[in-house]
Design goal:
The chain is built from 16 helices and five strands. It is mainly alpha-helical and 386 residues long. It has a three-stranded antiparallel β-sheet. A hairpin with a 5-residue loop joins strand 4 and strand 5.
Length: 386
């Protein structure tokens, strides 16, 4: 039952939170990295360390001259090996044989699989951690009391909306550094997933890049002619050589066959990771293209305001697009994910009205002037979505 307790802890990464509880400070692609992928990596780490699922991770047999527990421990902490498999008959298992002149394929990765999976889980969480600290609870601060569908007193609702519009108007053109942090973390997500693909390829001795395609090709081959690529990368039967001194002081060599039961899990985990990383890298790349269009093309921002948020006033959209910068738009974009469409439309209507009536955005007010308008950011800094 211990494994279910650990797995339930990992489930916290993917739990659904109500908007009234936590502020949304990113998009779905971003959350695929630090919520779903990190949870997958940590869950896989738990599975490969749960000996009660598969028994002992390695079990070796020899001629009996070496105690079984000594042989198992030695072969686990050093390495095992296989020989190139030519498909010839008369071989007990793929990768076994007596021709020691051939180049051996060393297998020592299995010692590091749990650590590697845990480390990758941390890597996928780091961009979110950077963005969360960069963001400093700004979205939660300005949307406080307006998230979700909870009914509030009309006067209080109007007051909160006016304070929000005042904040957006007073801090116009002051959020470009804020947006830089967000787009930097989006690029970091993409670099992270692509880098992890090559990291796994190096970890598995150059076998990961083509692992998924090899498995698909294998499933379509003739039963009598195919060689399972999963067994080549994650062999279930390997060899191990143990040396010790004999009674006369000469060195004796003992060959052992080792069953790597852990690889029955490893092969399934890594084939899933291959497909998941490919999907995640494609989606992350498209997210970067989308963000680049938002940054470089004002028409994209105009389309988003008109269609996604149903904000259709031509004059209002034109005022928002022409008189706001990328940082302002990102803040408005994130704000739209935290409050209802009706409230969001009212906020944009009022903001665009002020932009149309005002010739130039006012300079930022002093700290004393801002104090009664904006709540203390320290109150919200640690309450954004994790």
């Amino acid at each position: 039952m211990a494994i279910f307790g650990l797995a339930s802890a990992v489930a916290g990464f993917v739990k659904v939170r109500y908007l009234i509880d936590k502020a949304v400070i990113d998009n779905m692609v971003f959350r695929m990295h630090y919520r779903i992928t990190s949870a997958i990596m940590f869950l896989a780490c738990i599975l490969v360390t749960a000996n009660n699922l598969i028994g002992d991770p390695i079990s070796c047999i020899s001629d009996g001259a070496v105690p079984a527990h000594v042989l198992n421990t030695y072969c686990w902490i050093t390495y095992t090996f296989t020989l190139p498999y030519s498909g010839a008959k008369g071989v007990a298992h793929p990768g076994l044989g007596n021709d020691y002149d051939e180049e051996k394929k060393i297998h020592s990765y299995y010692q590091w699989v749990p650590f590697m999976l845990f480390f990758q889980g941390l890597l996928f969480y780091i961009p979110h951690w950077i963005w969360k600290n960069w963001e400093e609870g700004k979205v939660r601060m300005i949307s406080d009391g307006m998230r979700g569908t909870t009914a509030i007193i009309a006067d209080d609702k109007t007051n909160r909306q006016n304070r929000l519009v005042q904040y957006l108007y007073d801090t116009l053109h002051m959020h470009n550094t804020y947006s830089f942090g967000y787009f930097f973390c989006e690029v970091l997500n993409f670099v992270n997933v692509v880098g992890n693909i090559f990291f796994l390829d190096a970890f598995l001795g150059g076998a990961f890049l083509s692992y998924g395609t090899d498995v698909v090709r294998f499933s379509n081959m003739n039963q009598e002619q195919r060689t399972d690529p999963m067994i080549e990368v994650f062999p279930r039967i390997t060899k191990c050589t143990f040396h010790k001194y004999g009674a006369s002081g000469t060195i004796q060599k003992h060959d052992a066959l080792c069953v790597l039961a852990l690889n029955i899990l490893n092969e399934k985990i890594f084939i899933f990771l291959w497909f998941w990383f490919i999907i995640l890298s494609v989606v992350s790349g498209l997210a970067i293209v989308y963000s680049a269009a938002v940054i470089l093309l004002p028409s994209t921002r105009e389309t988003i305001l008109k269609r996604r948020f149903r904000f259709g006033s031509p004059n209002g959209v034109e005022a928002l697009v022409k008189r706001t910068q990328v940082g302002d738009f990102l803040l408005l974009h994130l704000l739209g994910q935290n409050i209802s469409l009706r409230v969001y439309g009212e906020v944009l209507d009022e903001l665009s009205r002020r932009l149309i009536l005002g010739c130039n955005p006012p300079s930022a007010p002093s700290t004393l002037e801002m104090a009664p308008i904006y709540p203390d950011i320290d109150k919200f800094a640690k309450e954004t979505e994790t």
